[in-house]
């Protein structure tokens, strides 16, 4: 390894600054997220998995774990809980019998739709904290430098899944009524995972 082009002091201050800002930001995000999903008896992992499965349309458990930044066992266990509640279904693809995929059920879609329709029924500190920036620049912060750091840590395939998910959000969201466009209108043929 070549000699670093920064001092130990500079590295430590940068690392600690990122750690402190990330922790403060996460605390606010977590509070907002929990308040939003509380009426639906979901925890953050369950909502995140449901959201990812909806937007990736037939994601593997590995995809969910990677995009959700969680361990595969966490993704699987919470996905099973969502299946038990009727929000997700597991299936195998004819051309890929090795991987298990998940898809959102109609009932899961209804819950997501209700959450979106009731978005403003809870406080959103992150949104409120960002409004002064939006009023000055006409848009919300884009975090381009942070995205670059995340790309360097998690890799290009993570960013591809990340972007694919947000493109689906954009195309699936109906601004007229504040809701999601149903995936079940054009649902792919799925083969259920065999019960054991």
From TrEMBL:
One Pfam family in the UniProt entry: MarR
Keywords: DNA-binding, Transcription, Transcription regulation
SUPFAM superfamilies, per the entry: Winged helix' DNA-binding domain
UniProt-listed InterPro entries: HTH_MarR-typ, MarR/SlyA-like, Tscrpt_reg_MarR-type_CS, WH-like_DNA-bd_sf, WH_DNA-bd_sf
Family annotation (Gene3D superfamilies): Winged helix-like DNA-binding domain superfamily/Winged helix DNA-binding domain
Residues of the HTH marR-type domain: 11-155
Superkingdom, natural source: Bacteria
PANTHER family named in the record: DNA-BINDING TRANSCRIPTIONAL REPRESSOR SCOC, TRANSCRIPTIONAL REGULATOR, MARR FAMILY
Protein name in UniProt: HTH-type transcriptional regulator Hpr
Annotated source species: Sporosarcina highlanderae
Species lineage: Bacteria, Bacillati, Bacillota, Bacilli, Bacillales
